[in-house]
Write a structure and sequence with these properties.
Distance between the termini: 92 Å
Number of strands: 0
Low-confidence stretches: 169-177
Shape: flat
Number of helices: 7
Helix content: 55-70%
Number of domains: 1
Strand content: under 5%
Radius of gyration: 25 Å
Length: 193
């Protein structure tokens, strides 16, 4: 499908709209996942404290998973490849150049770049299959809604895991009442009529 001026305008809107809210939400969700912090935090010196702190949330500027620049470049390159405007190796070169740039300038690590590239290819295919029309914008809204819902569900799974870890051991007699102890009075005569 050759890209018309309308298709290109919609592609630009999709890229900008995808880069800002969708990638922000992806980073917010991934920062709450039970993954090693080295996968989630940017490798820059400004984020060294975030990498060393064992718990707690990751501040917004230090969230690195996935690489938004690589993801956006992959969407752009993959749409152009699928529309016949680029060959596959040119699309791959664009993605690799952006990913390498992000790694060399210590903005992301290789895992963050790889995840961004794979997500970009997925979204590029999704947007292209919707014809780069108003349906693409609807698809983008649906993606943002799905990611937003996930943003609120992901912390619930972490809280559930923490709750499961804090449950008392029912096999232990001391914990038979959920961690509560029952004190028996020494003199029960005061409770009798």
């Amino acid at each position: 499908m050759p890209l018309s001026a309308k298709n290109i305008a919609i592609l630009v809107i999709v890229l900008v709209a995808h880069y800002f809210p969708v990638n922000y939400l992806q980073k917010a969700i991934s920062s709450q996942m039970p993954l090693p912090r080295s996968m989630l935090v940017r490798p820059s010196s400004e984020c060294a404290n975030e990498l060393l702190s064992p718990g707690g949330s990751i501040s917004s500027p230090c969230r690195g998973m996935p690489s938004g620049h690589t993801e956006t470049a992959a969407i752009f390159a993959w749409v152009l490849y699928q529309s016949g405007h680029l060959r596959w190796f040119s699309a791959l070169a664009i993605i690799l150049i952006m990913g390498t740039h992000r790694i060399l300038f210590a903005r992301h690590n290789a895992i963050q770049v790889a995840v961004g590239a794979l997500l970009g290819i997925f979204y590029g295919t999704l947007y292209y299959k919707t014809g780069l029309s108003l349906m693409s914008l609807g698809t983008l809204c649906f993606v943002m809604l799905g990611i937003s819902v996930s943003y609120f569900i992901a912390p619930l799974s972490v809280l559930d895991q923490q709750h499961q870890q804090q449950q008392p051991n029912k096999n232990n007699a001391d914990d038979a009442y959920g961690g509560w102890t029952i004190e028996r009075p020494q003199d029960i005569s005061q409770y009798l009529p």
